[in-house]
Task: inverse folding
């Protein structure tokens, strides 16, 4: 689900930044900064949650066995697993946030126009949302098409809310 967070974050950046600024390099810089921030947030948030959960489980085992697990293989494995899951929670939103801004690298180099990059980026964002929604729906043994549409509607909602906000600022 952190991949979804990354896509939605980048999509919000695209809608707000691209339409307000219209500068590919600014979109790239803001997108990379956003991607790094969401990855770091994902890592530390997941690590803290996983480590806390595993610590509680180990303290419960210690309570039942009347022994300490400090320095044990179980404690080391719990730490390794916490780091592993935190890395996944960092990489996932990073990729979700960075993929939609890739067309702007081509635009910044003059290989495509800004509007082309924006169109490809919007299309890629919606394609990623549809794919992810369908995949999640399939994992949950639900209708993948309904799930795909629901995820894509999240992107539409971002666009609508930005448009309303933009009108208020005029």
Result:
């Amino acid at each position: 689900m952190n991949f979804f967070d990354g896509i939605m974050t980048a999509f919000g950046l695209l809608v707000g930044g691209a339409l307000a600024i219209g500068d590919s390099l600014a979109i790239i810089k803001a997108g990379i900064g956003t991607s790094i921030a969401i990855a770091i947030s994902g890592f530390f948030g997941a690590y803290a949650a996983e480590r806390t959960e595993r610590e509680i489980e180990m303290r419960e085992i210690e309570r039942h066995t009347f022994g300490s697990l400090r320095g044990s293989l179980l404690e080391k494995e719990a730490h390794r697993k916490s780091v592993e899951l935190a890395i996944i929670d960092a990489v996932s939103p990073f990729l979700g946030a960075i993929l939609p801004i890739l067309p702007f690298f081509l635009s910044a180099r003059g290989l495509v126009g800004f509007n082309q990059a924006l169109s490809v980026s919007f299309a890629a964002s919606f394609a990623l949302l549809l794919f992810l929604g369908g995949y999640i729906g399939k994992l949950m043994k639900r209708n993948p098409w309904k799930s795909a549409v629901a995820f894509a509607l999240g992107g539409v909602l971002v666009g609508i809310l930005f448009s309303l906000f933009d009108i208020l600022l005029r």
